[in-house]
Amino acid sequence: MASTADVERRDEEETNEPGAGDDEDTGAQVAPIVKLEEVAVTTGEEEEDVLLDMKAKLYRFDKDGNQWKERGTGNVKLLKHKETGKVRLVMRQAKTLKICANHLVVSTTKMQEHAGNDKSCVWHATDFADGELKEEMFAIRFGSVENCKKFMEVVEEIAESLRKSEEKESEEASSAAGLLEKLTVTESKTEESEIKEASASTEKKGEAKLETEAKAGEASSLA
Fold it and tell me: Are 127 and 101 contacting, i.e. CB atoms less than 8 angstroms apart?
């Protein structure tokens, strides 16, 4: 009959055998239940270059409630289209990526410091964030005075560049209109001169014909 010491020694040997107590590896591969495919996500910003990208908090003035309402916290961007050169201001909420501001920077865009807060500025814009054009008054607050000033300076530089471009186009259009007017006047005078010359020529021909007929009549009467 095996002693207690023999039983304990045998149990210890079985426990120490390689692989004893380990999960058996069958080599089977488990395929995922659902296969996810990569989907290309477009933001609408692929054809634009980033001129400015800063974190900020945006507010919209509620005319009905006569108060400022928060639109969201996220990154405000100034994007320049690679072909048209137009610049737009876009801001998305950080977590949801919902657009809370989306409008063009135009020649009339003007940034103003927010009274009582040198980290903030305000401006008016025709915004398209909600899917329709609406006149809005925005206020934006940055984490530092330096960021606020930089934002205002970049927007003002863009607006100033647009104003100069529009003035140049206006001057060119006026110059072209002046040249066209001068050309029209010159052509009119030339045409008038040609008519007068043709009329004078016709009168001379008529007088010469009458003179010839008169001489022919005199010669006939003498004969």
Answer: yes
